[in-house]
Backbone:
């Protein structure tokens, strides 16, 4: 009975909104009230580029991958044992990596692995001094997973990641925030390159076409103060990022060779191992 | 001597309280971001819902100026970006360029308010893209802007 009343009411609000929200293809037409350049001169120093770089989450990439038939995620979640030390830079990298592991567990729909992610996230967040901000999200992740609300688990994981980045910004720990993003990106790339090594296709290899993003990550990493690069693996990060930038260039056919995909996997997994082993 | 220690202790306590206060006050709540989110909300449910990313961009933009945002996009996904400023009369625009700086056609979404615009792109190639957000010169004051995005 309630629905009989609610549906027309909802329609009355939603349909006009849908009608209003129409799509129209944009071209850099001179008729626009704001001039729109036909192209951007990227080398122009006067170009006002926003510094904030948003790193894609693994689910964003997996969404594309599933459209070319890669849908089996069983056993992809890999937990490394974590022994934390006083090196906060390393802890930040590990935090980013653990969240990316959580995204893979979501793709796999493995409640146990999601729970393990929640616990690991809390442990590492506490070590970073942001445990209180993360606690409610960690609880929500577990609750949502046990109710099979995977959409909510996904949102909460992205939220937990963003909460930590925001906290670091508030605490003026911008260097750590760069490392959280880098750790997350490494985790996603490690899994993507592993999957592509096993299910190689030209279309799939295109997903690793990320040299521009790697370059931005590398620049941010190089600009970190030396005090934030505490640990022997930091030398390896610089070297690996430079190597990945080369390996992720597509060839004339717009693809990345199987050989390069495998090398990307070897380099990313080696670096992640080195970070955890420190 | 003991008095000095007590004063130092009090000072430290106040410092910690102020620091904690500013941390909790500086939450991620942002009115301009909410404007963008309100326009996005209908696209985030249903069978072909977009998935909203929690990360977003923000800043200040002077009248008649533009800013460039870098974002990695993946082939086969569809992305929608919402750009908002507070001034309801502000004329604003968002356009997409590829990794070489070439203009890329995107679908402009007409919304019922002038100070929020949205555009949709289904990239033909995976790679780094550039969003150009601009503000018309007729606006009187610099605007606090926000850009959010979602994928499906």
Residues:
């Amino acid at each position: 009975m309630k629905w009989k009343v609610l549906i027309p009411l909802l329609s009355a609000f939603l349909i006009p909104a849908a009608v209003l929200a129409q799509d129209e293809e944009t071209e850099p037409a001179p008729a626009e009230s704001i001039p729109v350049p036909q192209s951007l001169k990227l080398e122009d120093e006067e170009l006002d580029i926003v510094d904030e770089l948003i790193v894609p989450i693994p689910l964003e990439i997996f969404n594309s991958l599933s459209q070319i038939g890669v849908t089996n995620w069983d056993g992809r979640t890999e937990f490394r044992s974590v022994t934390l030390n006083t090196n906060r830079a390393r802890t930040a990298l590990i935090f980013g990596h653990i969240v990316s592991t959580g995204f893979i567990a979501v793709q796999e729909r493995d409640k146990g692995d999601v729970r393990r992610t929640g616990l690991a996230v809390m442990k590492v967040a506490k070590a970073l001094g942001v445990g209180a901000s993360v606690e409610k999200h960690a609880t929500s992740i577990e609750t949502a997973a046990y109710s099979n609300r995977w959409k909510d688990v996904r949102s909460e994981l992205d939220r937990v990641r963003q909460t930590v980045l925001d906290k670091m910004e508030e605490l003026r720990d911008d260097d750590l925030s760069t490392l959280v993003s880098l750790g997350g990106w490494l985790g996603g790339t490690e899994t993507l390159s592993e999957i592509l090594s096993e299910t190689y296709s030209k279309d799939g290899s295109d997903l690793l076409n990320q040299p521009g993003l790697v370059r931005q990550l590398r620049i941010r990493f190089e600009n970190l103060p030396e005090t934030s690069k505490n640990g022997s693996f930091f030398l390896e990060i610089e070297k690996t990022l430079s190597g990945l930038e080369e390996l992720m260039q597509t060839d004339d056919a717009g693809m990345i060779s199987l050989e390069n995909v495998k090398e990307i996997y070897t380099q990313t997994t080696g670096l992640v191992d080195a970070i955890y082993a420190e | 001597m003991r008095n000095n220690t007590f004063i130092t202790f009090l000072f430290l306590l106040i410092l910690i309280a102020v620091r904690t206060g500013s941390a909790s006050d500086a939450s991620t709540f942002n009115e301009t971001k909410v404007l963008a989110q309100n326009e996005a909300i209908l696209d985030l449910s249903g069978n072909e819902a977009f998935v909203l990313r929690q990360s977003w961009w923000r800043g200040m933009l002077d009248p008649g100026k533009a800013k460039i945002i870098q974002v990695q996009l993946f082939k086969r996904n569809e992305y929608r970006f919402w750009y908002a400023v507070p001034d309801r009369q502000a004329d604003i625009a968002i356009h997409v360029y590829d990794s070489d700086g070439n203009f890329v056609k995107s679908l402009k979404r007409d919304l019922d308010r002038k100070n929020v615009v949205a555009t949709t792109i289904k990239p033909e190639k995976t790679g780094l893209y550039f969003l150009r957000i601009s503000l018309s010169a007729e606006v009187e004051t610099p605007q606090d802007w926000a850009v959010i995005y979602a994928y499906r």
Observations:
- The beta strands of chain A are 22-25.
- Chain A touches chain B through 61 residues (CB under 8 Å).
- DSSP finds eleven helices and one strand in chain A.
